[in-house]
Amino acid sequence: MRFTVLTLFPESFRMMEEYSVLGRALRSGLIELETVDIRQFATDRHGTADDYQFGGGPGMVMKPEPVFAAVESALARVPVEERSATPVALTSPQGDNLDQNLVNEFASAPGMIVICGHYAGVDERIRQGLITHEISIGDYVLTGGELAAMVIIDAISRFVPDVIGSAENVEHDSITSGLLQHPLYTRPAAFRGMGVPEVLTSGNHADIERWRRRQSLERTLRLRPDLLDTAPLTNSDRVFLASLGWSGDGD
């Protein structure tokens, strides 16, 4: 999968390119990341990419000309048959909250173009004439969209085959599975007076899976009961949740 990020600060992505799981995925060609400096598409010799607001007001606004030119240049490099399926996303606190459903949607695309918002915002004509998605990673404001773009890329890249060790690792993660993950333990078996549940050392895989599933259900009910509204629950799951006081009506 190919990510093209349009940004005023392309150097921000250097860490992502050099380190971590994504760094290895980039070096091995499992994913591609192109960072494009929006200022290269400015119409003046100073590389001006922002200007004052019409009507007055605090903060500068990203100009439409360089952003349009940068996106059009990026789309021109996408195979014709893939262009209509390539999202053009803007990072913005006004956007749809990034959740697993949206990540799944993007992960099925051949590639993605991400525009990093900055300053007071972008010229409204960028929203009107360019983007297919506006994405927020939470109800707060960052100094720029680069960190949000990295979050988006990281979340999607996990679903590219071989980026994470195995598909099973991804499928059983919190949220991805529809529930929060069960508790995890590793060696040593005893640590500062805290032990490992006996079932995990019993060797009985059926009991282990049952314990993990119930722990996942209990943790989700306690911490994120909203997830249960859409989680893939079995009849056995529902019976167990009911024993914990869950009514199944969103309470």
From TrEMBL:
GO terms, molecular function = tRNA (guanine(37)-N1)-methyltransferase activity
Return the SUPFAM superfamilies for the record.
Answer: alpha/beta knot
- Where does it live in the cell? Cytoplasm
**Residues making up the signal peptide according to the UniProt record:** none
Keyword annotations from UniProtKB, A to Z: Cytoplasm, Methyltransferase, S-adenosyl-L-methionine, Transferase, tRNA processing
Main subcellular localization, coarse class?
A: cytoplasm
User: GO:BP terms for this protein?
Assistant: tRNA N1-guanine methylation
Enzyme Commission no:
2.1.1.228
Residues of the tRNA methyltransferase TRMD/TRM10-type domain: 1-229
For this protein, what reaction is catalysed? guanosine(37) in tRNA + S-adenosyl-L-methionine = N(1)-methylguanosine(37) in tRNA + S-adenosyl-L-homocysteine + H(+)
Q: What class of enzyme is it?
A: transferase
Out of the domains of life, which is the source? Eukaryota
Query: Would you name any one GO CC term?
Result: cytosol
What CDD domains does the record tag this protein with?
Answer: TrmD-like
- Record HAMAP family: TrmD (MF_00605)
Family affiliation: Belongs to the RNA methyltransferase TrmD family.
Q: What is this protein called?
A: tRNA (guanine-N(1)-)-methyltransferase
> Whose protein is this, by species?
Geodia barretti
Q: What is the lineage of its organism?
A: Eukaryota, Metazoa, Porifera, Demospongiae, Heteroscleromorpha
